[in-house]
Design a protein that fits this description.
Blueprint: E1 9-17, E2 20-27, H1 35-49, E3 58-65, H2 71-77, E4 86-91
Parallel strand pairs: 2-3
Antiparallel strand pairs: 1-2, 3-4
Length: 99
C-alpha cells in the first residue's frame, strides 16, 4: 500500500472481524478527490491486495483529515492520536466475486 502515500493517502489496518475490514485512513495535502473517493479506493486496495481480506463483505474506515486540519499531521508525528474527523462505510459487491 505504500504507493498510495505518494498520492496523499496513508492507511493502517485496525482489524478484520466477521468479514468486516476496519481501516484508519489519513488524507494528506496531495489528495485531490473527495473523502468518499479516498475511502472507496483504499478499501478496494486493501481487499484486493491482501489474500486474507479477499472474503471481506464490508469495510469501515475511520478518517483523519490532515489536509483540512494540518496540525493533525504534526500530532501524528509526535505519537499523539488526534481523533477521527469522520467515519465511512461500504459494502463490497459480492455478486461479481461469485462468478
Amino acid at each position: 500500500m505504500l504507493y498510495r502515500v505518494s498520492y496523499g493517502l496513508a492507511s493502517k489496518l485496525l482489524s478484520f472481524e466477521n468479514g468486516v475490514i476496519f481501516l484508519e485512513l489519513e488524507v494528506r495535502n496531495k489528495w485531490e478527490k473527495s473523502l468518499n473517493a479516498a475511502a472507496y479506493e483504499i478499501a478496494q486496495c486493501w481487499k484486493n491486495k491482501h489474500k486474507e481480506l479477499k472474503g471481506a463483505v464490508a469495510c469501515k474506515i475511520y478518517v483523519i483529515n490532515s489536509k483540512k486540519y494540518s496540525y493533525k499531521r504534526s500530532l501524528l508525528h509526535l505519537g499523539v492520536h488526534p481523533g477521527y474527523d469522520c467515519k465511512k462505510g461500504m459494502i463490497f459487491n459480492t455478486t461479481s466475486a461469485a462468478k
